[in-house]
């Protein structure tokens, strides 16, 4: 499980959980979830977005396996999307943002071909190989980004680039629903919808 940024770099990874564990269980027992619950991640305060009159908090984008919270957005459930175009647009935008994670893993697998087939090493060594590959991936992303065959320099990577992930037993608060509704309203403004 990983948290990535918009530049396809790993911010936090959790390696070593059993494949039979669900993403939600892995996340709720992670250090990242615990820090989110304690509000000790130093997330910047909410900011105004263009053509929107309300400040919106910074959020992590997740899929339906994760809990909804003020800083963790998940899509609307299917029953809330049927016949509701606004919620459908929100889910579409969230899905587009989640593609960054899939692309990051794709880039990792294309650079480090060890991920293209089953590991042929001791089980105890797999965690270290995956973590080392993530660190090397970030280093390569730090040096250059290649997009459309153009190489651009990017800024410095923080020293704490990888944090281990680990129980969130809290229910979704009403503020989380309000934040999701604000993002739904934002995504459905004419300017955003038309890509302006």
Automatic annotation (TrEMBL):
Keyword Nucleus recorded: yes
Keyword Hydrolase: yes
Provenance organism: Acyrthosiphon pisum
Occurrences of domain DDE Tnp4 (ranges): 2-138
PANTHER family the record matches: NUCLEASE HARBI1-LIKE PROTEIN (PTHR22930:SF269), PTHR22930
Name this protein carries in UniProt: DDE Tnp4 domain-containing protein
Protein family per UniProt: Belongs to the HARBI1 family.
GO cellular component: nucleus
UniProt cofactor(s): a divalent metal cation
InterPro entries reported for this sequence: HARBI1-like, HARBI1_dom
Subcellular location: Nucleus
Gene Ontology MF annotations: hydrolase activity; metal ion binding; nuclease activity
Keywords: Hydrolase, Metal-binding, Nuclease, Nucleus
Top-level division of the source organism's lineage: Eukaryota
